[in-house]
Amino acid sequence: MTTSLLNAERAEQNLLDLLKIPGLSGRERQVADHLISELKSAGCAAEWIFEDDAHTRIPRDFEMGNLIVKIPGTMEGPRLMFSGHMDTVPLVRGVVPVKAGNRYVSQGETALGADNRTACAAILSMVQVVLENDLPRPPITLLFTVGEEIGLFGAKEVNVEELGSPALGFNIDSGEPDRAIIGAIGAHRWQVEIKGISSHAGVHPEHGVSAALIAARAIADISAKGYFGKIQQDGKNGTSNVGGIQGGEASNQVTDLVKVTGESRSHDPDFLIEITEAIRGCFEAAAASVENHVGKAGRITFNFQADYHAFRMQEDHPTVEATANALAKLGITCKPEVTNGGLDANFLNVKGIPTVTLGAGQHNPHTVDEYADIEEYLTCCKLLVQIVEDAVR
Ligand SMILES: [Zn+2]
What we know:
Layout: H1 8-19, H2 29-42, E1 49-51, E2 67-71, E3 80-85, E4 97-100, E5 103-106, H3 114-132, E6 140-145, H4 153-157, E7 168-174, E8 179-184, E9 186-195, H5 211-224, E10 229-233, E11 236-247, E12 257-266, H6 269-289, E13 299-308, E14 311-312, H7 318-329, E15 335-339, H8 344-350, E16 355-359, E17 362-363, E18 371-373, H9 374-392
Parallel strand pairs: 3-6, 3-7, 7-16, 8-15
Antiparallel strand pairs: 1-2, 2-6, 4-5, 5-18, 8-14, 9-12, 9-13, 10-11, 11-12, 17-18
Helix pairs in contact: 1-3, 2-3, 3-9, 5-6, 7-9
Bound molecules: zinc ion.
Zinc ion (ZN) binds next to helix 3.
């Protein structure tokens, strides 16, 4: 088995080197430079390596776009893509990684950055094994994204054509290597502005249109129709929430402006839209139902943004099967699961690259208790090599 070619000591050094490099969202340059230098040492030709212009489309201050490497195959076959994000959360600032038993931890009161340097290191370790031993391989794309932690920006803005149309995608951004994330929830954030008509609440309340009454009727109606909180309709599931209500100035004035914010979630993209549209409909109906003495009603403006896109792969999808088969060869049973969070894979799947997300040993991300499990990390390194070996058959 080619996985025996993995040098565990060197793979561990790859991880430690990457954990030491600062690289918050938008400041991935040093991480990328380290990866480029190591990939070249492993045998990547300079012309295989390039950076895209994703940062020019990211509405924040970013040093660079995504780092992309296209390794030519030694044989024909569906192109594989391995991806991981280069950025870490602000809590990682100033990290000093230290080894503690079979883990890497942060020495001080910072997070470790195992989310997601374990991925960068595992991908690098796989490339070292494949290229330095000149293993037979299909064409392989590496995608190191920027800005994952603040909105999946790199994955959102990557241009699929530049990736060479990968057929199977393996994103690494999780803990246990046997848990393969094959689906993720989609989420909308929505905002409603309810415009009523102001009038003196004591002298001429009938001249006014109360935005407060509209908001109250709308929210009650959302609940009555079954679209509030935990939602189950015809076998379809989702959630919604009213997160904020703001408005009103004085008790003697009919409220003419109320702003309501909330969210909707579902694993089912169509049902997610249904939930958000049902909520919009309740606000519209409520606004029309409140009139003043001359028949003037309230008005609303409703906006929403997609935070994450939902996706769900079938368990017999080639990407999921490739993962399960490779894990089986390492003596591990694959546990497919669906996550409630947002991952680069959400956008990669939406862009037509069927992508599972695998673990490389990160635990308790975004906390001072974060650690990297060395055994799990090494298992992921082997898993990636095994996936390449299997693709040749
Ligand atoms: Zn992550």
